[in-house]
Write a structure and sequence with these properties.
The complex is a heterodimer. Chain A is mainly alpha-helical. Chain A is 69% helix and 5% strand. The C terminus of chain A is likely disordered. The longest helix of chain B has 35 residues. Chain B is globular. Classes of the chains: A mainly alpha, B mainly alpha. Chain B: It is a multi-pass membrane protein.
Chain lengths: 450, 343
């Protein structure tokens, strides 16, 4: 194992940690918004079902946050353990958001702890809801800071490189680079979408198992409609991201689109294969679409991959990540739309099984879309770790033990994932919502109103 | 004060915060497990659980703060420590991960009663993590990390055969148990739980002797490892004497079962004097002979930005932490278990 290339092993280990962490981080960023929505509705309408909804979500949420702290600690240290040269050089320009992220997370952790333990402690119900404001700001703030660091890796600026050292640094220019706005908003919107979608899946699952209680129908409505709103926003921001790439990072867009020749009226390629001469086979070609994506008009010139030296081109496989991601995005908008028009659809049942099954798929599908988008963003940046300044191969540790550490963390993440899923499903099964409604006597309090 | 001095003082303070909060947590986890093993669980288990539940998440963040801040202010630290500590750092991460996850499962999951495996993992990691982390202090004295052909390496043989390494590990272990028992004595008395108080007071007094012996042992081992550092320590010997006086007062108060709040403050001062005395004499090196604070400090613009961020963050954090403590540490109803539970 010690003979394996430390660069490749470091990439795989970082990728593995983030593969696990991105699930928990996404949920961590999005769920506070959903908690706030449900609790707010509960207080506004006096409908205790919504309050119970927030309360039950929060119980599962805290477990994902706890495991997220663990994987977040791992990636926080692995940045220095696996990429010491990168941190030594780039840290001089981009340490600020990393530092701020810890503060943001600190605020989130403190107020989440308080939120969780004070459901019945305040006389005024709004006080408890207000605790979610710092939780949500902390969560979304963390996402902002970390994403701005990732944006910097794509669009480094705010320094001058003199003899291999970053000098004349402006940390704020580095943080607010051209990639930051689209990246941050895309990450936030997709995290909100995925969290709403995951909760929608849970509600659909309960209904599929035969629960008929109005509680689940209310949960379904709140989560599916939220998914729709957030998903539409994500798609729109995704379109801005395309325009950003065309202007600032054309090689990433070109690789994702298999676009080799610079031209106007560029078509968009969907699916297909490349033969040995890089000729595209069996692809669906939509005329003008790439030019429109890049600049809103067919006459927009889109820069092709041939403009870049071969050793600075991203792998062409990112095309599939892009296509799959866009497709899942469309499906994630479509399913909630079908739900919202379900009464106009043929068939008599208000909750047909196929619709519930589709909603059940929403959560896993959104998570997959997040993974695909992340693959596209990171693999599409290759071979650079700092675009134009430092290649991945020059940034990794020289230690020969990375292979063993990879093995160690594979075992760790397997154990953590399996145990987390077990604990969460136990939580779900242990005390059903119906049982809890009966225990709390909510049925009598008029929670049954439509 | 130069930016480098401000930076290292801030970072050292974070690490001190971690030392206190984490020691309470690590020790409490161990005592909790020990009480289940010996069948004393009904006596002290509840009081420990009530304290730990809302506070544990905050602990890890102190450590992350230190690491991220260290790398931010002194990017060379990422290079030397990052490269050399890949294996020990990863092992410590695995321990932290196991501890964090299983604690959450135990507390927030639905299992009723004590899962002995969860408790065991929690108790064991409570000792292994401080042992692992403390070795970095031993490494920082120099002679263990070296550069060979431009590659940073860790000298494993020198690391394990060095009595100083072991003296630091020993000191870390007994300090964790001592700090934790001292805090729990105060907490149990506040909760009015006489039975629990009796048990943890016994732990506190029992671990006080080993703590001071281990401190003296480690103190003189530094002379072998790094005579320059030891000489610096002797120059500010008053700090270590002050530390000892605080220790005597703290133990006396717990012995007399009175003013336990002051007793714990004295414990904090005991460790503060020793900690800052050790840190001050360690300067100007972060890693002896390789990382020098004035040479490795990041550029001025980043240093100013980080310090500003720190001050602003501090203004948000301190009130939040006070709120957390008022709700859970100093609210008599909560401590006694009268107010509502989680979820």
């Amino acid at each position: 194992m010690s003979s394996l290339d430390p660069v490749l092993m470091s990439r795989i280990l970082t990728g593995l940690t983030l593969f696990v962490h991105i699930v928990l981080a996404t949920i961590g960023v999005g769920i506070p918004i959903m908690l706030a929505l449900a609790e707010w509705r509960g207080i506004r309408t006096g409908d205790n079902y919504y309050t119970l909804l927030a309360r039950r979500w929060a119980r599962g949420y805290v477990i994902t946050v706890a495991v997220g702290v663990v994987t977040g600690t791992a990636i926080g240290l692995q940045l220095s353990l696996l990429w010491p040269t990168f941190m030594r050089v780039a840290g001089k320009a981009i340490a600020l958001p990393l530092f701020l992220e810890t503060f943001a997370f600190f605020v989130e952790a403190i107020f989440l702890g308080i939120y969780l333990y004070t459901w019945d402690r305040f006389k005024n119900k709004w006080t408890h809801l207000m605790l979610l404001i710092p939780v949500a700001i902390g969560a979304s703030g963390s996402a902002f800071f970390i994403t701005s660091m990732n944006a910097f890796m794509n669009q480094p600026q705010g320094f001058e490189l003199v003899d291999g050292v970053f000098t004349n640094v402006n940390p704020f220019v580095a943080m607010f680079n051209p990639a930051t706005p689209t990246k941050v908003s895309h990450v936030l919107a997709s995290a909100y979408t995925t969290s709403a979608a995951a909760l929608a899946s849970i509600a659909a699952f309960s209904l599929l198992r035969g629960s008929k209680h109005i509680y689940f129908k209310k949960a379904l409505k709140l989560t599916v409609v939220s998914t729709f709103v957030f998903a539409v926003a994500t798609v729109m921001i995704g379109d801005f991201s395309g325009k950003f790439l065309a202007k600032y990072q054309p090689e990433k867009l070109a690789a994702a689109e298999w676009h080799f020749e610079t031209m106007t009226e560029a078509p968009l390629i969907y699916g297909g294969f490349l033969d040995e001469n890089n000729e595209i086979k069996y692809a669906l070609e939509i005329p003008y679409a790439l030019s429109i994506l890049a600049g809103n008009s067919p006459s927009t010139e889109v820069i092709g991959l041939n403009e870049f030296p071969e050793n600075e081109r991203p792998p062409l496989s990112v095309h599939y990540f892009f296509d799959l991601k866009v497709t899942s995005g469309a499906v994630i908008v479509l399913i909630p739309l079908l739900y919202m028009f379900r009464k106009k659809l043929p068939g008599k049942k208000p909750y047909p099984k196929w619709l519930l099954l589709s909603i059940l798929a929403l959560g896993p599908l959104s998570m997959t879309a997040i993974w695909l988008g992340w693959f596209l963003a990171e693999i599409g940046r290759q071979p650079w770790i700092l675009r134009g300044y430092m290649k991945v191969s020059d940034a990794a540790t020289t230690s020969s033990s990375v292979g063993w550490m990879l093995l160690l963390f594979i075992v760790l993440y397997l154990v953590l994932s399996i145990s987390a899923i077990r604990v969460l499903s136990q939580l779900f099964r242990n005390k059903s919502a119906e049982e809890e409604i009966r225990q709390l006597g909510l049925e009598l309090e008029g929670g049954d109103r439509k | 004060m130069s930016y480098a001095m401000v930076a290292i003082t801030v970072l050292w303070t974070f690490l001190f915060g971690y030392l206190l909060v984490a020691s309470i947590d690590f020790g409490a986890g161990f005592f909790s497990f020990y009480s289940v093993l010996t069948g004393h669980e009904n006596k002290i288990h509840n009081i420990i659980q009530r304290y730990l539940s809302p506070v544990w998440e905050v602990t890890n963040v102190f450590l992350i703060f230190f690491v991220v801040g260290l790398v931010g202010f002194f990017p060379d630290a990422a290079y030397y420590y990052g490269t050399a500590l890949l294996v020990p750092g990863s092992l410590a991460l695995v321990l932290l991960a196991i501890r964090g996850a299983y604690y959450a499962y135990h507390t927030y999951g639905t299992q009723i009663g004590n899962n002995i495996v969860h408790m065991g993992l929690y108790g064991a990691t409570g000792l292994l993590i401080p042992a692992a982390l403390s070795t970095i202090l031993a490494i920082s004295e120099g002679g263990i990390i070296y550069v060979d052909n431009g590659k940073v390496e860790l000298h494993w043989y020198a690391f394990f055969t060095n009595p100083y390494t072991w003296s630091v590990i020993l000191l870390a272990l007994v300090s964790v148990l001592y700090i934790s028992a001292m805090f729990l004595s105060y907490y149990a008395q506040r909760a009015g739980d006489e039975v629990a108080f009796g048990v943890v007071r016994g732990y506190a007094l029992g671990w006080s002797g080993p703590t001071i012996l281990a401190s003296v042992f480690a103190f003189f081992q530094i002379n072998h490892q790094n005579p320059v550092h030891f000489q610096n320590m002797l120059d500010i010997a008053w700090m270590f004497i002050a530390s000892f006086i605080c220790f005597v007062i703290a133990v006396y108060l717990v012995w007399k079962r009175t003013r336990l709040g002051i007793a714990f403050i004295m414990v904090m001062f005991q460790f503060a004097f020793a900690w800052y005395g050790y840190g001050r004499s360690h300067l100007p090196y972060i890693l002896y002979d390789y990382i020098h604070i004035h040479e490795s400090i990041t550029n001025d613009a980043m240093a100013i930005a980080l310090i500003t961020a720190f001050i602003l963050g501090f203004c948000v954090l301190v009130p939040s932490l006070i709120l957390l403590m008022r709700l859970f540490l100093f609210d008599a109803n909560y401590i006694r278990g009268k107010s509502a539970k989680k979820g």
